[in-house]
Amino acid sequence: MDDFVAYLDTSEVRSGKLEELKTAMAELAAFVEQNEPRIISYSVCFSEDGSTMSVLHFHPDLASLEFHMKVAGPKFPPVAPLIKLKTIEIFGRPSEDLVAQLREKAQLLGTGSIIVRDVHAGFARFTRDQLSLP
Fold this sequence. Notes:
- By secondary structure, the protein is α+β, with helices and mostly antiparallel strands.
- The protein has one domain: Alpha-Beta Plaits (2-Layer Sandwich).
- The protein is built from 4 helices and 5 strands.
- The chain has a 5-stranded mixed sheet.
- The longest helix has 18 residues, at about 20-35.
- The two termini are about 15 Å apart.
């Protein structure tokens, strides 16, 4: 559980950009699924009125999130005109380098803040073997 990382970002959808954003995010999700075998889960969610988007992903460890930033990072700039990022929340213990990367992403996509929440207590009901991770 110590290495597990959850990521949640929340963005405002720019007026008139919802359908274009949905297409872009479906493409990004497919790219992540194809190119990031260690990521546990990646979900793009929209509020009922389409004004807010949240992206939630789970990683078995920091290396997986760092890899995501490296591999998917070049796919973020085309999304910038479609959203205004509000927050990125990390549940776990990110490195300073990772926090710096997330700050860069927040500046690229909006004016969002980075919130780090260190896990105090809890458990995970999965193991690396159950996830078929290398």
